[in-house]
């Protein structure tokens, strides 16, 4: 049963994540934000299956709750309307593809260079938040800060994407 639930939540996460970007139902950014909430909730289901109840709760409370409310406030304060599709500029497309390619190369090289889980301490009791906090702010401080920068970039991206083209 646990494997079936894993594949169910993994499929939901991938489907909703794809719908955030390529939303065929509506061009309204609020719809994409709602699909992001569904992605976060299905990801929390994966955390529950891994017996990481604290991470599941934080995922729902902090990201689906607070961060998404912040995103929705920004979207609604900018008074976005449904827009027609913009023309894709070749230079922007090439720069985006090069950036994504560079990130994938860095990710694959770092994944191949390390042995994930080899230097982790043996697991203690489930839900030990003190050990999680110590690991998060010592060994995983850089990824933690990268996620915070990523959230900032996402907010700036929402503002830039919502700017009206002045003609």
How is this structure best described in words?
Helix content is 73%, strand content 0%. The chain is mainly alpha-helical.
CATH-defined fold name of the largest domain: Four Helix Bundle (Hemerythrin (Met), subunit A)
Gross morphology is globular
Largest sheet: none
Number of domains: 2
Number of strands: 0
Distance between the termini: 57 Å
Radius of gyration: 19 Å
What's this entry about, in short?
The protein has helices spanning 2-21, 29-49, 53-77, 90-113, 129-138, 141-162. It has 167 residues and is mainly alpha-helical.
Topology:
Layout: H1 2-21, H2 29-49, H3 53-77, H4 90-113, H5 129-138, H6 141-162
Helix pairs in contact: 1-2, 2-3
Q: Which key features would you list for this structure?
A:
single chain; 167 residues; mainly alpha; Four Helix Bundle (Hemerythrin (Met), subunit A); 2 domains; 6 helices; 73% helix
